[in-house]
Amino acid sequence: MVALVVGAAIVTSIAASVFWMASRAPVHRLRADDATLTARGQRIYAAQCAACHGARLEGQANWREPGPDGRLPAPPHDANGHTWHHPDELLFRITKFGVAKAANLKDYASAMPAYEGTLGDEEIVAVLSWIKSQWPADIRSRHDELNRSAEP
After folding, report:
1. What radius of gyration, in Å, describes the C-alpha atoms of the chain?
2. Of 5, 73, 83, 127, which one is least surrounded by beta carbons within 10 A?
3. What is the pTM of this model?
4. What is the pLDDT along the chain (152 residues), one digit of tens a residue?
5. Cβ distance 52 to 30 under 8 Å?
């Protein structure tokens, strides 16, 4: 039951963030077809993200259930996860600022670090572009449509 309540709170806050961002033009666009950028993103992902999210984007076990510390394990970034359910700009903000700040969740504790000060904006875009480049064509297409619908 706790997982359901926590999950609902996260979804609601992320939805509110998406709505808020819809009034603004996206600043950061993923470029999954840019081979140079995605190669850079793959290297950065291996160094900064794979320890938690998995070398194959598989995430951690039971990622939808809070662990003993009350925090959700790292979700998968492959087609089985929910990463592709969020527009580019929100993915960028979550990565740069952390889940709590990006989704305006004042008291949300997350194991996901904010990468502001660790990775530059273009490095974050590179990582996210590489992740997107690994999705099947139909998922990428659905994500592209999500981005179009998130634009003002």
Report:
1. 15
2. 5
3. 0.82
4. 555 545 555 555 555 454 444 445 447 899 999 999 999 999 999 999 999 999 999 999 999 999 999 999 999 999 999 999 999 999 999 999 999 898 888 888 888 999 999 999 999 999 999 999 999 999 999 999 999 998 76
5. no
Give the CA dihedral 13, 10, 55, 88, nearest 10 degrees: -20
DSSP labels, 100-127? HHHTT-TT---SSPP-BTTB-HHHHHHH
Q: How far apart are CA 13 and CA 108, in angstroms?
A: 11
Residue with tokens 């998130």: 150
CA distance 97 to 77: 18
Which of 43, 30, 39, 58 lies closest to 129 in space, CA to CA?
30
Query: d(Cα 76, Cα 49) in Å, to the nearest integer?
Result: 11
